Amino acid sequence: MQHEKPSLSATLANNLARQITEGVLRAGDKLPSIREYAEANGCSKNTVISAFDTLTANGLIEPRRGAGFFVASVTKTPQQDEDAPTLDRAMDSVWLMREQLQSKPDFLNLGEGFPPVAWLEETRLDHFHQRVVRTGVASLFRYGSRFGYLPLRQHLQQKLAGYEIEAAPQQIVLTHGANQAMDMVVRYFVRAGDTVIVDDPGYYALFGKLKLSGANIVGVPRGVDGPDIAALEERLKTHRPRLFFTQSVGHNPTATDISAAKAHRILQLAEAHDLIVVENDALADLKPRSATRICALDQLRRTIYVGSFSKSVSAALRVGFLACDADLASDLADVKMLTHVSSSEYCERTLDAIVSDGHFLRHTNRLQERLKRATATGVEALTRLNATIFKLSEQSLYLWARLPGRDDSIAFAKEMLEKHVILAPGTIFSAHANSVSPWFRFNVAYLGDPRFEKALGL
After folding, report:
1. From start to end of 281-414, where are the E strands?
2. Pfam families per the record (predicted)?
3. Which residue of 66, 221, 320, 417 is surrounded by the most CB atoms within 10 Å?
4. Is CATH 1.10.510.10 the classification given to domain 8-77?
5. SS3 of residue 299 by DSSP
């Protein structure tokens, strides 16, 4: 006897309930309005009202007259206490994002996702403020274009041409970083219950976005030269997904680059299965231009390119972009307008001033040289610890490695927190959060710090 598929309202209610119980939504958080939630999920207001009624009846949310719906206050257990030690928090993607956004001078953050501040300070953001004010003072007081600042998009056209990707300015949409770009793609394509294919291991923040949308996340194992093609083909036949999120260059977390043969095969499969490939290239400025990119082979027919300057200029500027087919770019610009009105033209003008300056190319060249030295130091440090490195790299922000006798990365990460060392456990990067992983993502810039070996008792 077949089980009936749950109604859309039940699916929405279950997704929100899971987000509340897992702590993604916390007591007192305001939910999107019924209209906003209906638009985001492509359903009627009545469907959302039914889902909210279910959650209200279960005591998970509460209506407040004239203000909307809020996550209900519940009696806190010791694990829910906001003042509870970090060790008591769940080791999930939200936890790792919180840790990366905090400044803890007395901690060694081997799980850091960015280059050291000292590597980026030479861009001297303060030098460009007056130039932006002189040439675009109006941008300080009004919204920008839905596509973003045109001169910066024109510079990005040149940047992409350096990767052999042809994209006109009307094919480029500026965003609040790569994360908003991926969020816009998810909002446009994904409805509750849809299957989305991802790298496994892969980018943990993307998994969080997909869970919020109610997507069914299916992972494709990542090899040393890219996704497992046989596994990808099997999942395409079984699940018939619309999207595949992947990272071809400097893969986060494994530090792998895709081979040309695999990139070609992925595009063949995309054509056969009506698949769109979303290529996240957030580490582009830290890697050689000659690296294989799927978008360069496809020229944005079945691909969406996502870029960022968080790793090479500043995460604080929050400027990223996506490039795709012109019609799709226009639609995604509308999604951006509906959800955020516009991106920051002031930040975009600042970034344009930076990348237009001849110093920027020298800066990125120095970044890559620093990264080469740090990668060599990181490999030496892990070798001394008898670690197994997934893929030896000459130039990568991360190394994916396992330590002898440490088969549960979550347990070991908790142990290291007590010694003021923050690790990025492999389980967080898995598409299946209940898995146990012995792997860790290490930031090479910090592996030479003697505090790690001291914490290990060596």
Report:
1. 303-308, 320-323, 388-389, 398-402
2. Aminotran_1_2, GntR
3. 320
4. no
5. coil
